[in-house]
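Lab notebook, design round three. We kept the backbone fixed and only want residue identities now. Task for the bench partner: fill in a sequence for the structure below.
Input structure tokens:
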């Protein structure tokens, strides 16, 4: 048990590196997005949510391409992408961007 913990501690993605602490800090974005799920859609910033979606998509690719592959960062940004896309869809629906297409399709 102690040797496996020591191996993790000294690994290239262990807690002595930024490959560990960067993703841990980025979970704050996911938590903030989860809190935003309880807010009314009118309070959501479409520009910021879009920026967070682009940011997470870019860093998911980075986490996959970097060596050693950073699965913790990938999981963090995949979770953030999911939460932010949901919030973006709530905002777009509240702004009327998604509801108009349904009305046009039903009238035809």
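Proposed sequence:
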């Amino acid at each position: 048990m102690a040797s496996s913990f020591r191996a993790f501690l000294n690994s290239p993605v262990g807690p002595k590196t930024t490959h560990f602490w960067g993703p841990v800090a980025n979970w704050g974005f996911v938590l903030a997005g989860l809190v935003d799920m309880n807010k009314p859609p009118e309070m959501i910033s479409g520009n910021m949510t879009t920026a967070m979606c682009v940011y997470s998509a870019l860093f998911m690719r980075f986490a996959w391409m970097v060596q050693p592959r950073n699965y913790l960062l990938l999981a963090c940004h995949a979770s953030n992408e999911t939460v932010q896309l949901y919030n973006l869809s709530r905002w777009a629906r509240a702004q009327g961007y998604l509801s108009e297409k349904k009305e046009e399709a039903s009238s035809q």
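Keep this in mind before ordering anything: The radius of gyration is 19 Å.
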